[in-house]
Amino acid sequence: MSRITLVVNGVRHLVDVEDDALLLDVLREKVGATSVREGCGVGACGACTVLSGGMSVSSCLALAIRHDGAELTTADGLDERDEVVSSFVACGAAQCGYCIPGFVLMSKELLAENPAPSEQDITAHLEGNICRCGTYPEIRKAVAAAAGRRATR
């Protein structure tokens, strides 16, 4: 058992974890970040995506202990005025919504790296995320709309 510090959405958490505890489970069970979801358990679907220092991490594969001291962002920490979140809502990019937190965080990572992505850039960056409802066109439209909103401010 180890005590680690996670800064999740700007809030510092001291948590006791087993050395083999997955970041996904610690975020959900000890921190209460329920937007982090297990879809496949093997890092192939993106539902468990979080940002660690602005970079995407598949939390279903990551050991929590390796993120001691990390600044993590989950979709729980974003509000409805966030450009990406509001664009997803405006474009109808969610059907069941299970995968959307991962898509939102991947989109935030993309726009931080590339503020004016092409449609091909958007598709390539999101290719590791799976939407079982098939709202890919709306998701791509939402990311482009968020980029446009950022460009006009």
TrEMBL record:
Gene3D superfamilies: 3.10.20.30, [2Fe-2S]-binding domain (1.10.150.120)
GO molecular function: 2 iron, 2 sulfur cluster binding; metal ion binding; oxidoreductase activity
Segments forming domain 2Fe-2S ferredoxin-type: 2-78
Keywords: 2Fe-2S, Iron, Iron-sulfur, Metal-binding, Oxidoreductase
UniProt-listed InterPro entries: 2Fe-2S-bd, 2Fe-2S-bd_dom_sf, 2Fe-2S_ferredoxin-like_sf, 2Fe-2S_ferredoxin-type, 2Fe2S_fd_BS, Beta-grasp_dom_sf, Diverse_Oxidoreductases
Pfam families: Fer2, Fer2_2
Protein name, UniProt field: Carbon-monoxide dehydrogenase small subunit
Protein's organism: Actinophytocola oryzae
